[in-house]
Design brief:
10 helices, Four Helix Bundle (Hemerythrin (Met), subunit A), mainly alpha, about 70% helix
Length: about 210
């Protein structure tokens, strides 16, 4: 695998994670996530020992969904974690993890939202109109990293991921684990946490070698 292919593969992981945080899993997304190509992609991702258990648990849940009721139960977990604010949720906005203030008083369209909006504007991108969320939503940031993987040098990728994800994703994953009833999103957030940590380690080594 050459450098371009590796960056494309990294970008695909970020986009996959983004899609799972962006909305509830419906029939269409489930079919995509459990297709032969997708299962092969999951298997390759799970070859990393640090990701293996979470990948297995995620795939096991996805392939066990056989009815509309199963989907509704997973959607209910998503809603209670990411759509309903309050102390029982794990809101997916960077702003809520990068302040010492009471989370209930934080303006989610504040500093982190505007910072991420600037990155999108500089890249001539924008949050889709059918996704009415602040720009510091984890799905938006992960999707933006997908773009960076194939459009920016490794030093810029490293700086962005460190500052826009690495500063709060651990706290977010801990929050999800504490509030998740079904555990699918616990494994997803833990997978995301470990993937980002591993990618940062790799980027740091690559930038050192190219310095």
């Amino acid at each position: 695998m050459n450098q371009n292919q590796l960056n494309q593969a990294r970008g695909m992981v970020y986009q996959l994670l983004s899609s799972l945080f962006a909305k509830e899993i419906d029939d269409t997304l489930l079919a995509q996530l459990t297709s032969a190509d997708a299962l092969n992609f999951w298997a390759n991702l799970g070859n990393d020992p640090k990701l293996e258990d979470d990948v297995k648990q995620i795939v096991a849940t996805l392939t066990s969904i056989k009815s509309e009721n199963d989907l509704l139960e997973l959607a209910a977990d998503y809603c209670s974690l990411f759509l309903v604010g309050g102390k029982h949720s794990a809101n997916p906005y960077a702003s809520l993890y990068l302040t010492d203030e009471d989370a209930d008083k934080v303006n989610v369209f504040g500093e982190q939202h505007h910072l991420m909006s600037q990155f999108l504007k500089q890249s001539k991108l924008e949050v889709k109109s059918d996704f009415p969320e602040p720009a510091d939503h984890i799905a938006v940031i992960l999707s933006y990293v997908n773009t960076l993987c194939t459009s920016s040098d490794q030093a810029k990728q490293l700086e962005f991921i460190q500052n826009l994800l690495g500063t709060w994703v651990d706290h977010f994953a801990q929050r999800v684990a504490a509030k998740d009833q079904g555990k699918f999103y616990t494994h997803l957030s833990h997978l995301t946490q470990n993937w980002i940590a591993g990618d940062l380690d790799w980027l740091q080594e690559e930038t050192k070698q190219s310095a």
